[in-house]
Request: fold
Amino acid sequence: MTPRNAEVVVVGAGPVGLAVAVGLKLHGHDVVVIDKQAEGTNTSRACVIHPRTLEVLEPLGVTKQLVDRGLELEDFAIRAGDRKLIPVGFEDLPTAYPFVTMIPQPVTEQVLLDRLEELGGSVLRPYAATGLAQTPDGAEVTLDNGDVIHAQYVVAADGMHSTIRELAGLRMPGNTLELSLSLVDVRVASGLPTDEVALYFAAAGLLVVAPLPDGSFRLVAEVHDAPEHPDLAFAQHLVDDRGPRKSHPKVTEVVWGSRFRIHERVADKYRSGRVLLAGDAAHTHSPAGGQGMNLGLRDAVVLADALSAALAGDESGLDAYATNSRAEAVRVIGLAHRLTRLANVPRAIRPVRNAVLGLAGRLGKTQNGLAKQLAGFPER
Reply:
């Protein structure tokens, strides 16, 4: 049986929806979370949490668990083969978390779900939201089994193709870049860096190499007509063609793989009456820099606090959330766009690009500025 009433209904039980729910439960509110999937995801694109996000998540009581279950890396680098064009270190950043935490999205979701259940919450599965009606003092969400939940507010955390966003009449315009990306999780015998996230700017194209806590590596590459199910030979070719030269990495297993296109979109508005957008329902962009889930998690914490205040009678925080979070999304999308374009300049000028980056990368200002942008606090 689904409940008939709640203070807040959260549609979508990914990291963002779960974080909103945890924040609301900590404030003592009645929240219902629904998700159309029978169970949480086992595979994902997101695998990094940045320093600012760890700071923001502290009030939820999950930061320590995320760090403990992840892999701490203090270095990020833009490379061309074995040459480091721009070294980016996080160890000197003004934060209690001077590192990035490599952690697969399913693990992040589990940590948040465990916290939600610890607070007495749960996720109702599998239920899809099929209808939405707003009233002056609330909203009604209709589920695919015909049940209707009455709530004071509804949070759309149901992804880029958000049903709730569409039902609320909110638009998310933007572009789909003519870039096909391949994502492959692999195991290697040796030869890939285990102490940094590396962006290889090769003549053949971009290759991102990121170590994961279980000893595997995440590879992301721009590939014309990327295969739907990349195999071992494909992964080995990516590493041989674009990765380090001297160490000759040998791929021994493909754990999982996928392909996708890059969308750069941000909702015109984050609020329509009693409906609020968060995460990919509000913004989506290139994975360059690993910013997507981080931006969504920061949305979630701010939104939970604003909703709690609104339930007490002060809605000003909701409007501030809608304005400020959208502005932050525009900044992050701009950063991801620049990194993506830089990585995918025409092949003929890639040697020139690398030469320029090599010179710029010698400057401490360049290194520190990029570190702060990636970490999530460019003005600090």
Notes: The domain at 175-263+345-375 is CATH 3.30.70.2450 (Alpha-Beta Plaits).
